[in-house]
Amino acid sequence: MDRTGARILVDQLMIQGVDRATCVPGESYLAVLDALIGSGVDLLTCRQEGGAAMMAEAYGKMTGRPGICFVTRGPGATNAAAGVHVAMQDSTPMILFVGQIGRKMRYREAFQELDYGAVFGTMAKWAFEIDDAARIPELVARAFRVATQGRPGPVVIALPEDMLTDVVDVADAPKAEPIEMAPSSGGIAALTERLEKAERPIAILGGGGWRGDARDAMIGFAERFALPVAVQFRRGGSFPADHPNYVGDLSIGAAPKLVQAVKDADLVLMLGGRMSESPSQNYTLFDIGVADDRIVHLHPDPEEIGRVYQPGLGLIGTAGGFAEAVADLPGPNKQSEWVETLRSNYLDWSTYPLPLPGSFQMGDVICWLRDTLGPDAAITNGAGNFATWINRHYRFRDQGSQLAPTSGSMGYGLPAAVMAKRHRPERDVVCVAGDGDIMMTVQELATAAQYDIPLIVVVVDNGMLGTIRMHQEREYPGRVSATDLKNPDFAAMAVSFGCHAETVRDSADFAEAFTRAKASGKPALIHCFLDPEALTIGKTLSEVRGASS
Questions:
Q1: pLDDT tens track for 85-139
Q2: DSSP string, 298-343
Q3: Going from the N-terminus, what domains does the chain have, and what CATH number goes with each?
């Protein structure tokens, strides 16, 4: 039947199983906003496009299906670029729809005109424009495949305003189910042979595919073959941290004994991830460009195998395909002193926090959250030194329980928490943010309040951009430039948004403040004051400065 381009587009989203989307509305795609009425899609109106895109990215992290975001042309799209970049570096499926100028106005630098293929070409898997409404079903189905197949990532689709009101007769495309790729039988046989010979193996899980059946099968695989399992930077929850085979995360500030264990291992299974700068400890764990027969690298993109590391065995496959291929491998089911040692090292490293200056002890707070929240709770964060306490002390047990950007993007935590609580309202969702970090997207508190999303935000305020100050004191000790912050009263700000708020200056008061925040049933913010001397998890500001002077 005859339909407008906007109606065809929304129909395709329904066919693809889209249940939730984010947006900042704009006149360039009013026809789509109208077509969404009555569709059943839960459309969240956000307060800035960067936040909207990060929410969509968080949805992709949680579900493995593309997060959907709509923004308007020009500045709307460039604001959203922050979320697109997160999706690319984090290998997260996402589709950003951008309203575009009318087709007859092209190439004149019309109002807010951009070439989206050029703008997003280096940060998206595919960026294109739909010129013909009759091609919407074909191209949207293809976009869902591109976003989810191989190495997942973002797709950007520009929608000319006049195209959305064209009326055409075109059939719908079918639902695009991503193809799970399993390594070859020869590759699995070679892996099994290596496992049988290894005395000090270790598996390192990366990428975003370790959920559902794949995660369960990986747990069984690790148990049968006595594999210690670590996760890459900000991939917590890929393997349960309370499992006896879990040995820690290769993050910024990773445990030295875990780093040494990877170097000492005689078999390293890099499963699903790229082992990029942060988990590889600035590319120092393995020699670059030199053959390393210890490495078995599984990745869904064949171009990734050998791009940085030269493995002894390369396997092309998704997490799900790999898990299915190894699910029935009969392992020796032996006890391993190697696993027990690495597990003991992890518990020694992560259980008790180091005391730091000031009455607010960040480590104590994270340990309290770890020991109090349920296994399905989600912790979200953006970027900053405050996150190192999360990396070290929190134990992510459920899939999707850590929502944080491997790209290191500031401002991610609050939008991610909004989406996490909206998508799974039954679980606790806590955003931990620094004072610089939260101000990047603080306006999304209004989104949480508008939709009655009772997340809890813990703002850690030390009056500075702590990570940059740490680098500054190391490179230019005592020469402070551009890193001091004069902050608002975050609690008062939260109240003005319609949220519950608490102020905490002593970590001994945190538990009661958190309990009140949760009981409020409203979005809540806890404003915590951290001594500026508590610059890092292991060194004070004075110690960092003194070591460099």
A1: 999 999 999 999 999 998 888 888 777 888 999 999 999 999 999 999 999 999 9
A2: EES-TTTTTTS-EEEEEEE--HHHHHHHHTT--------HHHHHHH
A3: 2-169 (3.40.50.970), 185-348 (3.40.50.1220), 351-548 (3.40.50.970)
